[in-house]
Amino acid sequence: MSEARARLMTSATRLFYSEGLHSVGIDRVIAAAGVTRATLYRHFPSKDDLLVAYLTAADQAIRADVETARTGKASGADAVRAVAASIADGIRTPGFRGCAFLNAVAEYPDPEHPVHQAVLTHRQWFLEVVTELLAQAGETAPEPAARHFVMLRDGAMAAGCLTDPAPVCETFRLGVEGILKYRDTPVVTPKKTGRAS
Description:
CATH architecture of the largest domain: Orthogonal Bundle
Number of strands: 0
Shape: elongated
Organism: Amycolatopsis carbonis
Distance between the termini: 63 Å
GO molecular function: DNA binding
Structural class: mainly alpha
InterPro entries: Homeodomain-like_sf, HTH_TetR, Tet_transcr_reg_TetR-rel_C_sf, TetR_C
Order of helices and strands: HHHHHHHHH
CATH class of the largest domain: Mainly Alpha
Radius of gyration: 20 Å
CATH topology of the largest domain: Tetracycline Repressor, domain 2
Strand content: under 5%
Keywords: DNA-binding, Transcription, Transcription regulation
Protein name: TetR/AcrR family transcriptional regulator
C-alpha cells in the first residue's frame, strides 16, 4: 500500500466510523489525509469504492481478531468464549460507536448497493465461523445457535455505545455461556393444538 493510500484509508476509517458514511464528504477525507483530489481518485475512482475499501479493511481486521482469539484453544467452547471476549474488549474500547457494518447498512439499505453487499459478505462469513466453532464445541444444532450468538453480538454492539459498556459486555458473555450450556438440549418446536385461535 502506498503512503498516500494508507493516509487516505486511515483518515477515511476514522471519519466514516466516528461521523457516518453519508455525512463525511470526499473533501473532508482529502483534507484529513493531506492529499490532492487527483490522488484520491487515482486510488478510489468513486466514494463508493472508498466506502467498500473502508469496510473491507474493517472485515480483514475482524477476521484477524477472530483468528487470533480462536488459535490454540483447547476446545471449540473455549474458542467461542475467546471470540466473545474479543468482541467484549472491542465494545469497551474508547471511542466505540457500534458495529461499523450495522452502521453502514443502516445508511445503505438498498441490497444491491456495493456497501450493502460488503456488509452481507462480512456477516455471512462471521455466521459461518461461529457455526463452525459451535459445531466443534459439540452443539447439536450449530446453525440456530450461531444465529443466536450473532443476535446477542448485534444487541451488545448497539447497546455498548449507548450506555455503560461493562454490564452490556457481562450480559453478552452470560448469553454466550447460556448457548454453550444448553448446546446438548434438543431444539423443540411448539406443537399445534388444532384449535382455532
